Amino acid sequence: MKIIYDEVLLRDPNQPEFHQAVEEVLTSLSPVIQEHPGYLPAVRAMIEAERIIQFRVPWYDDKGKLQVNRGFRIQMNGAIGPYKGGLRFHPSVNQSILKFLAFEQVFKNSLTGLPMGGGKGGSDFNPKGKTDGEVMRFCQAFMMELWRHIGANLDVPAGDIGVGGREIGYLFGMYKKLANEFTGILTGKGPSYGGSLIRPEATGYGLVYFAKEMLATKDKSFEGAVCSVSGSGNVAQFAAEKVLHLGGKVVTMSDSSGWIHDPLGINKEKLEWIMDLKNNRRGRISEYVGQFEGSTYTKSEPEPAFNGLWGVKVDVALPCATQNEVNEQEAKLLADNGVIAVAEGANMPCTPEAVAIFHEHGILFAPGKASNAGGVATSGLEMSQNSLRLAWSSEEVDEKLHKIMINIHKNAYETAEKYGMPGNYVAGANIAGFLKVAEAMTAQGLI
Length: 447
Ligand code: NDP
Known about the structure:
Blueprint: H1 2-11, H2 16-35, H3 40-46, E1 51-60, E2 66-77, E3 83-89, H4 95-111, E4 117-123, H5 132-146, E5 155-158, H6 165-179, H7 199-216, E6 226-230, H8 234-245, E7 249-254, E8 258-261, H9 268-279, H10 288-291, E9 296-299, E10 316-319, H11 328-336, E11 341-343, H12 352-360, E12 364-366, H13 368-371, H14 374-388, H15 394-418, H16 425-443
Parallel strand pairs: 3-4, 3-5, 6-7, 6-10, 10-11, 11-12
Antiparallel strand pairs: 1-2, 2-4, 7-8, 8-9
Helix pairs in contact: 1-2, 2-4, 2-16, 3-16, 4-16, 5-6, 7-8, 7-14, 7-15, 8-9, 11-12, 14-15, 15-16
Bound molecules: NADPH dihydro-nicotinamide-adenine-dinucleotide phosphate (NDP).
The site of NADPH dihydro-nicotinamide-adenine-dinucleotide phosphate (NDP) has 24 residues, from helix 8.
């Protein structure tokens, strides 16, 4: 494994996020390779993307000035199904970040039990502060190149940071025009044109369904549990909503400028206010304190510091903003304050040092590739509905999502036990996700 990791470092020395994701997986896989040495070649192949597409995205802003962004699609692994994974529009987007996300996606998609390979894409375009017209022109320009590389049986992108319903709509419209066909080419679509009900809620709801299963292994539940949530975007909003449904109390949320603490709890009414603020792009989370008495706002230091959001005493912590937002020091604060469970809503929000602290202290820890898989699982359900030309009800989709999350939990839990690491969901998820992909790759001749 060390040789394989060194190869990654040598080939792409400037990709720290990708190194971090690969190192974590390779560490988990050692016992599997001892049992199945025949899968070693699959590991070597897996760390190299099947295809990386990088392209120019020229578009005109409202002043008629040419802007040029960079677009990407990483088609990481298609052994068990069409490439599947989101598009991220954020100024920090680069190959390292997208490769880490695409790599994680391979294992995550495998864990859902659905036939989906792994991919990821996006652009360094920043939708913040842009008008609707500018976002539309950018999305159209982005799709003008991407469309030739994707397809309902080839690669089906979805949303991620900076890509929500509005962007998916513009991207879908342009694809349809260029390809001259109406097909399930993107997920996260609006319900009027092929989107699945519950897809917007799915990642946040799925996260809490997973955490509920994890808590149950220690005879605990969300009833009366105090929870911290970071972020205030798609994942954070619906994670908070599901915690409320299950009788828990959410006391924090954040955006990239800072975080709010409401010891009285962010109830349904307050959460609806946050959803309106963020989803209609009306303002920043700091405005919460002017609306709701007893709450405080703390400005963040340059990212990824949260200035103490993780210092708030809680039973359950749900990081739902971005990668590496919980560091070692913050993990210690959570541990000292007696946190019972930490479940990742975002992708890789906890640094490896933070994860080590959780394991040392016997804190239940759910890695994003297992606990946030509900989003892509429901995207898989959207693909099925598109192929069937049918639409399932909210209840049907939610029930399927819930079952999938229970199965992912069971699979990760039991796999960790089988390989001698009981309670280690990181190892359990990595190994369970890996085995299916490695078997498929090996059967297909590792091409
Ligand atoms: P959104 O864009 O809807 O929300 C992201 C939230 O995180 C916003 O509140 C944003 O603040 C904050 N944020 C973004 N970047 C930073 C940063 N660098 N520092 C601090 N805060 C930041 O994205 P999603 O909710 O969709 O995604 C959140 C995470 O969940 C990502 O890691 C994503 O990959 C992961 N995920 C998402 C899935 C989905 O279905 N959407 C599925 C699986 C994983 P601001 O408002 O200021 O931008």
